[in-house]
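RECORD TYPE: protein structure
NAME: Diguanylate phosphodiesterase
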Amino acid sequence: MTAEPDGPEDRLRRFATIWSRAVFPVASTSLTRAEFEAELLPLARRLSELLRARGFAAEDARAVGAALVGAHCTDPEALARTLDCVDAYLVLYCGGDGPQDELRMRSSRLQHAMAAGYAQSLRTRTLAEQEAIAQAALQAQGVVAQALHISEARFRAVFEGAAIGIGIADLDGNVLQVNKALLRMFGLSEQSLRGRRVLDWVHPEDAPQTWKLYEELVRGDREHYHVEKAFNRPDGTALWTNLTVSLLRDADGAPQYQLALMEDTTERRLLNLRLRYEATHDALTGLPNRTLFFERLEKALAAGDGQRFGLCYLDLDGFKTINDSLGHAAGDRLLVEVADRLQSCATAPGEMVARLGGDEFVALTTGTDTEREVDELAERIMNALVTPISIDGRDLMVRGSLGIVEGPAGERTAAEVLRSADITMYRAKSAGGNRSELADPEADARAITRHGLTTALPTALERGEFFIEYQPLVHLGDGSVRGAEALVRWLHPQHGVLGPDRFIPLAEHTGLIVPLGRWVLEESIRQARAWRERFGDGTAAGPLRINVNLSPCQLTHPGLVQDTIDILERAGVTPDALCLEVTESALIGADDDRLKPLRRLAEMGVDIALDDFGTGYSNLANLRRLPVSVLKLDRSFTQGMQQFPADPVDLKIVEGIVSLAHSLDLAVTVEGVETGAQAEQLRILGCDTAQGWYYARPGPPERLHDLALADASG
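PREDICTED:
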C-alpha cells in the first residue's frame, strides 16, 4: 500500500533516516549507510507502535535496544546518539495527534527500557568474551605450569590486549598482575595497584552477598561468581563494574590464584540514572512527577501496622486566566515559582511534593502522627501562596483549592486515595476556592455516583432507559382535566428509577440536555396526539394540552424553533397542544435576542409558561415584555394554605399575583396542591389550574386516560 504524501509512513522513514545518519559513523558495520538505514527501519517502526500503544510493553522496548547490539552498534556513543535521536524526534514524527505530555513521558520510558535492553545484550556479549578469556587464561595457566613458552606468549597477548580489565591475585588477596585496561579504569599506575589487597576494595554500596561469595571462592567451595560492584578511584569518583571472579587451579586441581574480569559500566549506570530521573521528574519544575509520586504513595500505603499517611491535593484557582491573558510562558514561570514554594513546605522527614500535571500539585506525608502533620502541611501550603508572585512586572495573586486525605496504611489503593483527594479538592473549589477541605467518604460516594451517572448518560438515551410520567393539570373552577406536565425519569440499571433532580443538572453540564430534551418533546407530543385521537377534540372542558419543561441550555440552542416545528408537523399536532415551561431564573435579564425563539413559538400558537414564578426576584414589570401566557406559581407561596386558617399574608400575596396576571391576560397555574382546603382557597382567589398530589401523582399516561374519562362522563 502506498502511503499518502507526508503520511505516517513518510514520517516514520524520516525518523529512520535521522537515526541512521546519527549512529552510522560510530557503528562497526560493513553495510552502506542506506543498507544500515534499511536495517534500522523495522526498529523505528516498532518504536512508533510502542509509543502509540495502549499499554506499555517494556520487554519489546528492551528488544529494540538489544537489536542495536545485534546491528554492531556496540560503541557507547551509538547508544547515546540513539537516545538523543529518540528523545528529540520520536514524538515529533511518530506521535500523531496524541496528548504531547503523555507521549513524551512514554518516550522517556521507552528510552529507559531501550537502554536497559542495550545494556543487557552488551553485558551478555561481554560475558561471552569474558568466558572465552577465562578459558584462555586457564589454559595458559596450565601451560605455564608445564613451562610451555608458546602458550604463555598467547596468554600474555590475550591478557595485555583485552578491552576489559583483568587482574590476578593469590588466595590471600594480594594483587599479582593487572592489565593496562584495568589500570586505565582505576586511574592508577601498575606499581601502585600491584601489591594492593583485594579486601582494601570494600565499598559501602557492595551487595550483602559480595564478600560471602568471595570467601567461598578462595576456600575452593566455589569456582566463580558474578556481581555488580563499585570501587573508589583516587580522585574520589566511583568506578562501577560488572565483576566476574574465577578460581584458577594448578595441574593437580588445587586452588592457586583468583582471576578477576571487570567491565566498566560507570557511564551506562549514569545514563540509566539520568533516564530514570527524567522519567520520574517533571521537566518544567524539577519536582517528582506522577510516576514517582505513585511509587512513593504505594510504598506508604503498603507500610506496616500503625503507619498512616496524609495527602494534600492542590489545584490553582484561575490559572487558565493567567495563561490566556499573559501567555503560556508566563504561566510556566508562575508554576516554577509555585513549585519552589511548595518544595519549601516539605520540611519534615517522609514528606514530598510532586507535580501531577498542569496546575495540579500533591504533597505527601507519612508516619504515625499524620493527622496532625497533614493539617500543618496544608497550612504551610496555603500560607506559601499568600505572597504575590511577580511575573513580567505584574504582581499576581495566587490562590489554590486544597483537598486533604488522611488515614491508616493498608486500607485503600493509591488510585482510590488520589481519587478521594481529587474529589475533595473540587469540593473546595466549588465552595469558592482559596480554601482546604477534608475528605468525606459520603461526599466521595456521592461524587463517584455523579461521575458514574454522567458517563452513563449518553448510552442511556441510546438504550432507551428514559421514560416519561405525566401529572394532570386540573381546572380549579370545574375540576376538569386540562392536560398534563411531562416529567422525565431514568430507569438506571443499578440505581433504579431516578428523578430529574438527579440527572438533569448533569445533562445540562455535559450538553446532553439538548438531545434528551428533544426526545422528551417528541415522546410528549406523540402522547398528546394519542390523547387527542382518543378523546377527539378533548374533554368536556376542551382539548388536552401537554406541558414540557425547557432548560436554559435548550433555550439558547439555535435549533429550538425548527426542532419544535418539525416534531409538531411529524406528529400532525397543532401548536395549541403544546405548552413550554421556562423557569423564571432562566429569563432574568434576558435580552431581545434570547427571547426571540420564545416569541416565534408563541406567535405560532405554542403556549409559554413562566415556571417557578416568585423565586427569581425578577421585576414584575418585566412580565409585559415576556412572551408568556401562563404563570406557574411556586409551591412556596401556597404551603401556608395547607393549614386552617390559611396564612393571611400568603393569601394577600397570591391574590395580588393572580390579579396582576389576569390584568396582563395571563393564566395562573399553582404547583404542589396537596389538600382539598388548599385547592378550594386557590379557587376562591381566582387561580385557573393546579397540579399536585391532591389530584394525582405523576404516573403513566393511562392514569390521565382514566381521569379524563371520569371528567367527561361527569
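COMMENT: The domain at 163-270 is CATH 3.30.450.20 (Beta-Lactamase).
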